[in-house]
Amino acid sequence: MPKKKQHLKLELSPTLNTVLMVENTLMNMDKSIFTVADIKRKLPKQVNRQTLMIILSYLEGCNKILVTIKGITWIRNTSPRLRKEISEGLELRRK
Question: 15 lies in a domain?
Fold first, then answer.
């Protein structure tokens, strides 16, 4: 990869603090489905749109959010009760 393109790519990489800020904002959103504009309004600090899109792509890859035609939804649930129910649940099998 040429140095110029590699340097440009590093400039667009979000910092860990920015990723955590966006993740925390998404976890605490009031609505269940929201848009990129909604996220930008709720963030405590301004984030470049391209950087935000990189973060959203990362969070979708980690199965923390779901991006659909209607909007973005936080899907990660860290509830210990839910984990217990899933681990103790019955598995239904087809014959």
Answer: yes
**Which domain range does residue 56 map to?**
11-88
**How far apart are alpha carbons 55 and 25 in whole angstroms?**
12
Q: From residue 74, how far is each of 4, 15, 20, 68 by CA, in Å?
A: 36, 21, 14, 11
> In whole angstroms, what is the distance from residue 44 CA to residue 49 CA?
15
Hunting for tokens 């649940």 — which residue is that?
Answer: 89
- 18-64, pLDDT tens digit by residue? 999 999 999 998 888 999 999 999 999 999 999 999 999 999 999 89
Number of domains comprising the chain: 1
Which pair of tokens denotes residue 26?
């998404």
Is residue 31 situated within a structural domain? Answer: yes
β-strand partners of 72: 34, 67
